[in-house]
Write a structure and sequence with these properties.
alpha/beta; binds nicotinamide-adenine-dinucleotide; eight-stranded mixed sheet
């Protein structure tokens, strides 16, 4: 099998001073990419900053003969990060939205600031970087975006209302970018990883952490970022060598008669049918839903 090369491709990886982002950076560089290693070098909760985080990764790449530049901007200044790419390498082809922080607290105790800050870094940060890269992607008819969600964004997790909301948002964001980017050869996908990093070190037991190296996540990120990848708007769960696709599933549903007989009591009575997945569909397009209901309207109502 020939190696997936990223020669002459410019990749921005946000939050690349440690954990997953660092590993991605080293891998992209090994495969010939010009890497913008972005990281403001703050704490896990998003406090402070230190240029060292990005510098260490850039030095490691350069020492191995690769091409990289450090960027210390906050992802909320996404335009500046893209500027670093353009100034040093002329353009940007790939954006890996990876930067993140945690401010965990039960919803009862979570302050508005804790909620907002986490949304800002994950979701608005991804927006800012992607927004600035988008005109380059369109003009060169090429772009790859990876958004980093989380199992918490798919399923929810105790103490992470802020994080889950941001991580779910990243999924919808990529799904829409996939549709809008389609005719410009811009592909946007989302991963929901689990990996060993400072985010998980204090939560998971060492024997589990041992299995969760970032090298088990990076291959999927690399493939989805490559020009060979045609998939877009998709979601993947990835951890410990396990790779799987996540998709939406809609129950067969029922169509009620929209007349006086359609009441809350009727919904309650037939709730089991709404929840029945025996005849489920896997919708991917918003427009699929409405013609399905409208075209089959008479038949469905007749059978209701
Ligand atoms: P990490 O803390 O090692 O990496 C996150 C990096 O983002 C840090 O280096 C940090 O300095 C940087 N960062 C934070 N705020 C920033 C900002 N405003 N601007 C620029 N950089 C900023 O943790 P990680 O586990 O490698 O996390 C990477 C991504 O993966 C995050 O988005 C995280 O939410 C996600 N994720 C991780 C796991 C896991 O199990 N580790 C699970 C699900 C999702």
């Amino acid at each position: 099998m020939s190696q997936l090369s990223f020669k002459d491709k410019v990749v921005i990886i946000t939050g690349a001073g440690g954990g997953l982002g660092k590993y991605y950076s080293l891998e992209f560089a090994k495969r010939g990419a010009k890497v913008v290693v972005n990281d403001l070098g703050g704490s896990l909760s998003g406090q402070g900053g230190d240029a060292k985080a990005a510098d260490v990764v850039v030095n490691e790449i350069k020492a191995a003969g690769g091409i990289a530049v450090a960027d210390y901007n906050n992802v909320l200044d996404g335009a500046k990060i893209v500027e670093t790419a353009v100034k040093n390498f002329g353009t940007v082809h790939i954006v890996i939205n990876n930067a993140g922080i945690l401010r965990d607290a039960s919803f009862k105790k979570m302050t508005e600031k804790e909620f907002q800050l986490v949304l800002d870094v994950h979701l608005n940060g991804a927006y800012q970087v992607t927004k600035a890269a988008w005109p380059y992607f369109r003009k060169q008819q090429y772009g790859r975006i990876i958004n980093t969600s989380s199992p918490a964004g798919l399923y929810g997790n105790f103490g992470q209302a802020n994080y889950s909301a941001a991580k779910s948002g990243l999924i919808g964001f990529a799904e829409t970018l996939a549709k809008e980017g389609d005719k410009y050869n811009i592909k946007a996908n989302t991963i929901a990883p689990l990996a060993r990093s400072r985010m998980t070190e204090s939560i998971l037991p060492p024997p589990i952490l041992e299995k969760l190296g970032p090298e088990k996540v990076a291959p999927l990120v690399l493939y989805l970022s490559h020009e060979d990848n045609e998939l877009s708007g998709q979601i993947f769960e990835v951890a410990a060598g396990f790779f799987a696709q996540i998709r939406w599933e809609r129950s067969g549903g029922i169509l009620f008669k929209p007349d006086a007989s359609f009441t809350a009591e009727v919904v309650a009575k037939r709730f089991d049918e709404i929840l029945n997945f025996d005849d489920s569909k896997k919708p991917e397009l918003l427009k699929n839903q409405h013609p399905f209901m409208l075209n089959n309207y008479n038949e469905l109502v007749a059978n209701a």
